[in-house]
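Usage

Read records sequentially. Each one opens with the input sequence:
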Amino acid sequence: MARLRIKEILNTTPQNQAIEVKGWVRSFRNNQFIAINDGSTNNNLQVVVELGLLEEATLKRITASASVKVNGTLIESMGKGQKVEVKATSLEILGDSDPEKYPLQLRNKPSLEYLREIAHLRFRTNTFGAVFRVRHTLAYAIHKFFNEKGFLYIHTPIITSSDAEGAGEMFRVTSLDMMNPPKNESGNIDYTQDFFGKSTNLTVSGQLEGELAAMAFSDIYTFGPTFRAENSNTARHLAEFWMIEPEMAFYDLNDNMDLAEEMMQYVIRYAMEHNLEDIEFLSNRLVDEEKQKPQNERSEMTLMEKLKFCLENKFERITYTQAIDILRESNHNKKKKFQYLVDKWGVDLQSEHERYLVEKHFKKPVILTNYPKEIKSFYMRQNDDGKTVAAMDILFPGIGEIVGGSQREERLELLENRMKEIGIPAEELSWYLDTRRFGTCQHAGFGLGFERLVLFVTGMTNIRDVIPFPRTPNNCEF
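and closes with the structure output:
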């Protein structure tokens, strides 16, 4: 008999049909009622074991997290909160779990901090079951969206010899004996003797390689791991995370914004349609968590309200200059309620400024455009004013910036001049500049940190709780 997932069983009409279920014990009451879960849903399936069916030795082995196989009959349940249950005809213990040693059994309602210490077991909790089912759905929705748009999925390298955008400290990759590395005549490490014959690192972005592909296939996207060796021990930073980076030939900034807005609404809607039960669970969990906070620290919107906020509103589009004027003249700024006061054009906006624009001023998601070139990357297209570049950031409630992108500088001379200005050697990126030498065209792209998206859709408050095995300073378990 084929095993049925519990999610399927709970949606099946009971007709006294024979059924087989496998899963892990969540609870066992009165030596008769077993709650079983197999990870397909947060809802448990009740199995009823008639007294006398099992030997005493077997009953003692039915403990939290023991894995079991049950054969029985699917019947209508007389209990509250469940439509069906299984009347067992046989039960086999597949794997024991010692209740005296099982970490989740030893703590009542374990905190998220404790669960991070036993991250290899936290999948078994309702909270993380919901988070990682939503994460799966969002990843699938990303691929589905781009596939329906005719985009090509490109795998860009994880090991690279270039710093894509000066985006942060990089992890060095080497096969040299670092206790006794070879030295050159200058006394520096001789990387010509390394595996790749040069200094290499883990990538911070697949964008530059993605642009190469876009200049042949028109529309491509990447979705892969990226790495930053920044010593940031915060709830918003990871050393290893996943990025979605589409690149589109013949797109200008407006095309770029249209695609990013459509993508964000598509994937959020897809998650709400396919994981509503999980999202409602996480929303209710967040409401309970917020009750422990002082009133002034609580979110103004529930998780469900934030998601609908992004689906039901057309994103407001304003320039950086307009945003600075709004922020500078706001009561928040005048009354010094911002931690970082906005006093002049050219400053980099903080999360508190971005959230003010979204939550207080426009009351809808915002796309900011045309940032000062001095605070943006070298490859962004320079505007005619000589001060700004054709950049765009999407701002969401509760989180601030979630997507960043730009129209790329397709004019070779202007790109070379900008690289020279900020000290990027043209010879190191000659391969990249070839896209401007041979058939250049206007093109654009953006980046979305996948964990930032999962954080937003699940309502979790620490980015370490939306990736299975977080990599952070002084932490590389499993």
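Summary fields computed downstream for this record:
- The mean pLDDT is 94.
- The longest strand covers residues 18-29.
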